[in-house]
Amino acid sequence: MKKIILLLLMMFCLSGCYNYSEMNELAIISALGIDYENESFKTYAQVVEFKDGKESFVSYTSEGKTIYEALRNLSKYSSKRMYISHLEILILSETIYKDYNYDVIDFFSNYPESGLNYFVVVSQESPEDFIKTSTPLNTLSSESIVEMIKLNNKYESFANVITFDEYIDDYISKGKSLIVPRIHITDNKPSEENKEDKIIEIKDLIIVNDKKEVNYLNENESIGYSLLSNKGKRFILTIPCPNGDYTIELKSFKTNIEPKNNNTFNIEVSSFGTALSFTCDLTNEKKIEEFIVDSTQDEIKNIILETLKLSQSTKTDFIGLGDILYAKKYKYFNKIQEDWEEKYLEKIKFNVTTNVSINKLGNLKSTLKGSD
Amino acid sequence: VINIKEKINSNALASLVPSLVKASFFGYGISAIFISSKTSSIFSLIIGFILSFVYVLIFLKVYSYKEEMTMLEKIDYLFPKVISIPLIIVILITIFFLSLLIYYLINYFVVSHYLTETPFWLIGIILISSVFYLSTKNYEVLTRVSTILTIVSIVMLLVNIFGLLPYSEMNNILPLYNFENKKIVKSSLIFFSLFSSPLFLITFINKKQITDKEKVNKKIIIHIILSFIVTFIIFYMILSTLGINLIELFSYPEYIALKKINLNFAKSIENICFLVWSIFAYILCTTGVMYLKDSIIDTFKLKSDNINKIIPFIICLFIILIPELLFKDNHILTGYIYGIAPIILGGVLCGIVLLMFPLIKLKK
């Protein structure tokens, strides 16, 4: 009898969780856009929908005095509960990025359903444009942006993957400023089938300092940031040479930044490269390989110095030199951390050394142009 | 009624050690240590372990004294009645506090992170019913459950550690020494208190009841060292994965770190990975309830057919009711715990053992 009672009791325990939610009761948000207009937060949600085995989406918009209220208000328009556990990308408007980072971090790090691994980007246009857009290769723009950033990070290292936890870390850190990829939307050539297709482009990287001044990194500076932060897998440089250019693909790069003293940093970059695509005349050069190595090293050095110069001129430590000082010269940084970006960053001097090894020169013995 | 002739072997007893010493770090222990000494926590851990190791040697000496007596009987024997009775009461209250604390922390975590819509008491009933069931059984069942769960927890810890390795960055653990000696000492003491005090619970059984008692000291020491190595790796992985800024920001850095694990075939597995902490908490909570049950039955010489079930039922009922009635405001309790738990646990459970040691020397 006891066993029967026990079994009956177990039936109640094993039937499922209390207050459970079925999958079809949830509106799974894959992308969330946040903007600030007229003293209220606006949220734009891209909700994944499967119809007849095909992936599609529905977009919702709402607003509120706080992000939480705005997100809750989304339920006014949906018959399903908004669920952000599977969020893939968070799109912030420039206004939010400049002035309301605290609100974003406060909400998403507090909210139990929120993860930490989704990407953060800033949109040049309103986030609404990205949320409501269908892209040519992926129906969901969220999927498209995520794949694009991943791909870029793998092959070009122009845009960096910034996940939400890194975003929080950069925001809290006294020795590093925020840096996030910025995306831009343009019209695609309308096709017969889908005239509303848009192209989303990774525009550049956007930085903001303690004074809430926003600046942008150009392509070279973005590559410089990738190099200095050891992010990205490989990148491509096109370098001028006599009567033309050559392109080199650099990979396996490693950058070591060490403070020599309180005002000087030693930066060492090492990398392997594959030289491809020559359009230059190198017949006068004694050794092609030596020329390529020297010119590539010089180019990398210039890119790094250009990036560091931007960091100093904008008083924005997006590279995280302060963090390095904190780790290696703790006592000194503790004293100056409040004025680090404002007073001390611009006084830092850099000794940059680069070491590039060419492990492949492509299939040709020499350049075609030289043998003309 | 308690079976005082019940015997267990040294392996079974030692299998409790890894879960007991790690459980109380969950929720507030890890945060408290990191908040206090920041990246120098690595130093704090080492200093804390040296203190703990010295304590364990003293504890084993005390445990080996008068092998036929339980710890509470030894207190009664060593101290005059006027002191021993209040001391025993304080110890029992502290062990109750430890069980309550672990129950509360794990429940609070589940309510705030997993099942946000579910009432606190409902989750509590599910957890405490399994604690109650196990605590009505004998020691052999407890140690067998503990051995199985320890093996499960080792597998889970390995998954967690290997899952976090790609996200681990050496720079995050720097600076190793931040010159804040007072804070390093403070967090070393917190570590010592949380690591060493739950060891008191293994004295639920006297040394004579261990079949191969000559091996038990060695096995406990080995388990303590292994547990420290695992604890050190856990701390290292959390620090190197999250960095000190994020650790200071979140209430459960151990859980937040697990959120980063992304296996190719499975995403968002932090909730499964986190079960390892529930296992530690479950064993600690059950051992605490069993200790209280046996001590109460033994002290008051209670004899009844169902006493073995009634006492744990009452203890479990109190464990459920106290947070419901007294600590409705979670923040007050958690804030309070941060300050007092290590002091109470270390002060009472370790303090008494350290007090007994010179008395034993004198008696000898």
Show the largest interface: A-B, 23 and 25 residues
Q: Count the DSSP helices of chain B.
A: 15
**Number of H/I helices of chain A:** 12
The structural class of chain B is: mainly alpha
Shape field of chain A: globular
Helix-strand pattern of chain A, N to C?
Answer: HEEEHEEHHEHHHEEEHEEEHHHHE
Mean pLDDT of chain A: 83
Order of helices and strands of chain B: HHHHHHHHHHHHHHH
Strand composition percent of chain B: under 5%
Rg over CA atoms of chain B: 20 Å
Shape of chain B: globular
Which percent range fits the helix content of chain B? over 70%
Low-confidence stretches of chain A: none
- What's the story with the biggest beta sheet of chain A? 9 strands, mixed
SSE arrangement:
The complex is a heterodimer of chains A (372) and B (364).
Chain A: H1 2-14, E1 26-37, E2 40-51, E3 54-64, H2 67-73, E4 81-83, E5 89-93, H3 94-99, H4 101-110, E6 119-123, H5 127-131, H6 141-155, H7 164-172, E7 178-187, E8 198-208, E9 214-217, H8 219-228, E10 234-241, E11 244-261, E12 264-278, H9 288-313, H10 321-328, H11 330-336, H12 340-344, E13 349-360
Helix pairs in contact in A: 8-9, 10-11
Chain B: H1 10-14, H2 16-23, H3 29-37, H4 41-64, H5 71-78, H6 81-114, H7 120-135, H8 139-164, H9 181-196, H10 213-249, H11 253-258, H12 270-273, H13 275-299, H14 307-326, H15 330-363
Helix pairs in contact in B: 2-10, 2-13, 3-9, 3-10, 4-9, 4-10, 4-15, 5-6, 6-7, 6-13, 6-14, 6-15, 7-13, 7-14, 8-13, 9-15, 13-14
